Amino acid sequence: MPAGSPFTAARIVITGIGLTAPNGNDLATFRQSLLTGKSGVRRITTRYMGEVLAGVCDFDELKYQRKKELRRGTRAGSIAIYCANEALADSRINIAAADRSRVGVYLGVTEHGNVETENEIASIKEYNYDVKFWSHHHNPRTVANNPAGEVTLNLGITGPHYTLGAACAAGNIGLIQGVQMLRLGEVDLALAGGVSESIHTFGIFASFKAQGALAAHPDPTKASRPFDRDRNGIVVSEGGCLYTLERLEDAIARRARIYGEIAGYAINSDASDFVLPNAERQAQCMAAALRHAGIGPRDIDILNTHATGTKQGDIQECIAIRAVFPPGCPLHVNNTKSFIGHAMGAAGALELTGNLPAFEDHIVHPTINVEHLDPECALPNLVLNTPKHVDKVDCILNNSSGMLGINSAVVVKRYEA
Question: pTM of the full predicted structure?
Fold first, then answer.
């Protein structure tokens, strides 16, 4: 930002949350599931592979869309529309009365278009691959901006919209983009976060299985087990989480409830491998986010890890955490994927959301399914299997990383006037 810009120091706050997760369709239900150990993982059947384990959302698709719109649109678009409307309702904003040219929609995605393409190929196979049976809706369904675009169509938003392809760091990065656009003065209201329809493409399951990174367990609810010695891979999940973001002065002017203030963030790249994470770069990302927030390691009360349940991924993140947070730091460490699996493009946004109520109730939700802690993942104050009451929660750090070596970290503070 140029020196003296009027938006450089703008404080950005969260005033609304809309979500659908495999274990809840609103923040209260989601939070309760995290505190009571309720998993959202179950068995589903997918093309060519048969039975797999997945985190499946069960929200009311017809709450904000008609059946015709559902048929024309995509699963990711439907998730995004549900979350956007819920976020606006939660923030008590009447979008019809707002200047919709000053509203931006910024959604992180891991991938988009795979589901529609796979379905169309399977369909025309039944007609000897005659392309005249290919859907004329294919192009608008598969363009990268689809989920954000469907939100603008549903809500009549005429401001900017786009998706941010950032692998599994996308939920954090959608949130960061919303903050940046508000500070630049490009918009006055941002709907920002991430969405994922990943469980509806067999390819993601097949690829993780080929890598030896697809979780398996006789009990689906115990399949996602970051930090456990016997973890064996990722549980793929769908989901979405969008935040209503505003400048603090605007939120105060309309007497909005404030969930928290975005205090800092950072994004960087490993530049070392397509898949394997780099602990040094992850540590640098966390440290940069702390500097951006103007705080130190001892100021963080909760660190929500990205850990996916892969052998090396969990270990590398723990190495990074130890590098940034020396012994004696008061932070408590947890993980949300143990409850819902890996929601890909929605993961960062959903996992941050599940911790925000701790600003008020001072409870750190646990990582579940840890029966035998891997010694290489034995971090101090790692909250396992049972929630922990703490004296205060003033600052949360949310980690989120993805393939091709993209890392993100977001710092949220409890709002203080």
Answer: 0.96
